[in-house]
TrEMBL record:
Protein name per the record: Variable lymphocyte receptor B cassette
Keywords tagged on the record: Receptor
Length: 28
């Protein structure tokens, strides 16, 4: 369970960094 929690945590960090770098227009 601890491993999955860490994995989700890292995935969230990566997703947040990508969202900040990629302009919002890419999602629309």
């Amino acid at each position: 369970a601890l491993l999955t929690c860490l994995l989700l945590f890292y995935c969230r960090l990566i997703n947040n960094n990508q969202i900040k770098r990629i302009p919002r227009g890419a999602f629309e």
